[in-house]
Fold these 3 entries.
Entry 1:
Amino acid sequence: MSVRRRDPLPEWDPSVYYRSLIISELPSTDEVALNNMTEFFTAQGLPPVLVRYFAPGRKIPSDLKRSQGLHPLLGTKASSVVEFSTREQASKAIAVINLKCPGAYVHFLSDGAKKASDENPKKKEKREKKS
């Protein structure tokens, strides 16, 4: 007997990091909660695709481990990761949060620049040997 998925897993989209925001340090931790974030951005005409809430001290999912290195508040303070359908919407959301809640921590999960240290060192060695 074999077990299969009814529907195949969707392709992973790496652009999700470039159109997602991490939001923390709002005046009230209740404002970071799922329902409040969804309602807030929808009222601004920027409906999010996905909102994920992270309580302090909770385990961070593996897909956000790298982002935790860039954003140390993730996992240590109440924060939300909010995904938008486009980077432009996410940029507008940053402006809205900065206007409504000055002092809040709001940044893209990734700025889009690949660091040299991100490259696999074994691949780098092979390429250098070929040269």
Entry 2:
Amino acid sequence: MAIISSVSHHGEVWHSYLYAAVIRCHWHVSLFTATLGRNIQEENGLSYATRSWSRLPLYKQQRHVNELFNSTSTICSYQIIAIGTLGLLELRRILNVLVKDCDPRTAYIVLVQIHDAATALRSIEKVVNKFSSQLSRRRIEIRLLALAFHVKEYAERYQKLPLRVDVWVPIFPLDLPVHDENDEHHKYFDFVIQGQVDTQRRNYSGFFTQVQRQSKALDRHRITFSIVGRSSDCKNFRYVRSPQVRVFIGPQYMPANLFFGLIHQAVGIIPLFRGDTYYKSKQSSSIRTSVLTRTPLLASQRLLKTHKYIPKEAVWFKQDNETDLGAVLRIITSYPSDVAFRQALFMRRQQLDRLAEEWYINNERTLREYARLLEQSTKQ
């Protein structure tokens, strides 16, 4: 199996491919990345955050993407090729080699990851259409790999080509501290807003207005908020002068081991979605970060309906008539003591732990199904 990653971010997605293929399926896997020269595994800290299982696979199997594209025989040697964060150039070059240079008797599966189906579908279809006649004469199957169920549903509903769409949940084990019901590592109840800082994605201004209005209540109940992520224009957050808000923002993401470790110490993640995109066609990093770090989401009924696989017992439930801040205050004050709250938090972490185990198994099944299809095609 070959995994192609053309960007330095979204490393957690290809780590999920690596974990399922190498650790769960015991396959031979190569990771081809355009950022090898910058030593990506040291820069983003994921190798340290996953050191219990990833050190050897990353050291042995990570190669520069040019090594793949400069050798048709190398491309032809991989029967399963997964293209990470969408690179249309990579897809075009891979298909061109498969239809022109590889043995027509060999079966191949090309997996094209989709994060936002609304923006990706037309571009993918445009590339695939150029090879439609050649693909029909070869044993080459192209599958879309949606990073959430609602992304899969959107792709199936609106795609113009009869491409099979599968679901892949980008999770893998992180080496993080173990929490228990007596965990009192922080005297505050800290909630995190994480990800790329983009006012088109999240309603920061409305949230900060709520924080300023409720500052006394937040102080009284020891509630704080951490904004963790990346922004090319950090000046946008200079107006945050609330003592209840900590800002961890820079032009680059902090190393992954620090990023996930900071979130893991929090008691909850607030998605703070703006608009309908994350409920219709796009996967949210807040969802996978919740499962990765075992940190419960502040989740409305709409969010749970969109992400049906997340049980209500794994989240802090936000009622339909509540603001995010109102829900946080209600949740914290509903417990008679810190110990009672920590016990409730621990139970939610356990639910997220079980959910992660389920999806390790489901991702493994998905890969093994591809192997079965290739074996069947070879016998025909």
Entry 3:
Amino acid sequence: MKSPPCCMSLSSQAPLEEPGSSTSLGSLDSSVFSSEEEQGPLIHKVIPSLDCFTINVGGSRFVMSQQTLSCYPDTRLGKLAVVVSAARDVASGLLELCDDANLVENEYFFDRSSQAFHYILNYYQTGRLHVMEQLCALSFLQEIQYWGLDELSIDSCCRDRYFRRKELSEALDIKKDAEELDAQDEEEDFSGSLCPNVRQKLWEVLEKPGSSAAARTFGTLSMVFVVVSIANMALISVELSWLAPPLLDALEYLCIAWFTAEFVLRLLCARDRCRFLRSVANIIDLLAILPFYITLLVESLCGGESSQELENVGRIVQVLRLLRALRMLKLGRHSTGLRSLGMTIAQCYEEVGLLLLFLSVGISIFSTVEYFVEQGVPGTTFTSVPGAWWWATTSMTTVGYGDIRPDTTIGKVVAFMCILSGILVLALPIAIINDRFSACYFTLKIKEAALRQREALKKLMKNSSSDSNINVNLRDIYARSVMDMLRLKSRERASTRSSGADDFWF
């Protein structure tokens, strides 16, 4: 019995193998697929049936008909069907489309995710591409691009959710890259600079409150001075017989001296001073102490001038003293909640802008309508459209001071519509902002836990290198740190699920 010609070895002159042997692309010589005229009968024996294809994806087999694949000629499997059916240059064509092939069994191998391929298979069968929920948006995009599909082919029921998740994935990737750069920058030492060891220790005390006992003490003192400064700023405006103004002034000078020393030390210890001065937190620190020195400078320069000039100087000083309220923002260095609020506002600027836009439109419309409805009423409080803006603002934000109110029935109906519109407008972006705040808060918590564990590992490694008798299991410590972060992450996911934010997490 003669063996079939499909099982030829690397040389076309070699004897044929036994029937039933598997033949991959690597075991076939390229001359076998040279031309249709010379090898046409051989090709049709190598590939006995073109009606069905066996697609092996990650070890899972799927049988698909040529008619189904030929409906999508621009996809990878559609091109595969075209190449095999044309029987022209099969070897080189298949090598570009699949990882390997068994030409005897008409089976083609792809080293890809078999779970994701179920969604690709469903697209070939129904023409509808749905999104795999268990896979992140960017990974799913890579899968469909490999198979020659476009993200515009995603069905309308999954399209909005997919693009939201893709946008969030890209934002997280950018944020992760930035955090990795920051982490690399933090790991850089002060070698080559003046007094590197001293600057390194001072920097850890100033910027890493949990790194040592001295750093924790310094962070606590800094927070105490911020609170005392805020309380002192409030007490200066109150006339108390038992509290002398010189005492409050002395307390103010003490707080300013602490803030100045803290800022100068941070500036001297910074590796990149330009980057240090561009930081938002450091700009806030500078604005918290700058008004005090500007006030002293202005008063010293204009101390002997006329009363009119002194009055102008006094106005300038009062304006500058208002900036002392920025000291409250210094608490953001020590409060995870305040930092989360800042991150939320920075990430939700589009939603906040839309909220302000909706409120502005509503205020303009309802204030104008209410003014023309109420202007003919004797003794009305709606004297002008700009005056009605205040009423519309308090009504849409559901504050309702009552200093300006409508008297007519039509005016009250307009006021009811204004209040109802305000409730609806405020409710739209609040859920998104709340979800972002929860995500930012738990992200910061995870980062803080990771930093604490990293510092602990560094200390233990340093101690173990200096003391050979110490018994430390770094693997257990690392496992505990991972478990802590997983607990925080599970809490985060539970929180976002309970608030209806499943579309934003994957």
